[in-house]
């Protein structure tokens, strides 16, 4: 079993979503450039990205602007706030991002 240095964030947001998480590798759907590793809390589809769940972003990501792929310039999502939890998020455009569950340790 491989060991992973990055550990999941454990906080009330995670608890509110059932208390488990997965790592997703997100890439640009258009040009397939890898964008980031993302901690997805709980079940359900990925509609928005919480900025505090983005880990190991590549240099293809600009954090302070809308989410876009630096490789192909495609805009992937819009920065906004998830008011219910007062957290900054990227609201994703449908079909803009490719998701795959990272193999290895997916639960803790
Ligand atoms: Zn791209």
Q: Which SSEs are present, and which pair or pack?
A:
Blueprint: H1 12-16, E1 21-28, E2 34-41, E3 48-50, E4 54-55, E5 67-68, E6 75-82, E7 87-92, E8 97-101
Antiparallel strand pairs: 1-2, 1-8, 2-4, 3-7, 5-6, 6-7
The structure holds zinc ion.
Describe the structure.
With 108 residues, this protein is mainly β. It contains one helix and eight strands. It has one helix at 12-16; strands spanning 21-28, 34-41, 48-50, 54-55, 67-68, 75-82, 87-92, 97-101. The chain has a four-stranded antiparallel β-sheet with strand order 4-2-1-8, with no helix packed on it. Strands 3-7-6-5 form a four-stranded antiparallel β-sheet, with no helix packed on it. The longest helix has 5 residues, at 12-16. The chain is globular and about 35 Å long. The chain starts with 11 loop residues before the first helix and ends in a 7-residue tail after the last strand. It binds zinc ion. The site of zinc ion has 8 residues, from loops.
């Amino acid at each position: 079993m491989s060991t992973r240095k990055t550990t999941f964030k454990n906080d009330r947001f995670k608890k509110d979503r059932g208390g488990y998480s997965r790592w997703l590798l997100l890439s640009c759907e258009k040009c397939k450039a890898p964008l980031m590793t993302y901690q997805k809390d709980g079940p359900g589809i990925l509609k928005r990205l919480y900025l505090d769940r983005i880990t190991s972003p590549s240099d293809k990501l600009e954090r302070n602007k809308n989410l876009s792929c630096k490789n192909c310039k495609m805009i992937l999502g819009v920065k906004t706030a998830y008011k219910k939890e007062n957290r900054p998020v990227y609201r994703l455009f449908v079909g803009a991002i490719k998701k795959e569950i990272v193999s290895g340790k997916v639960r803790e």
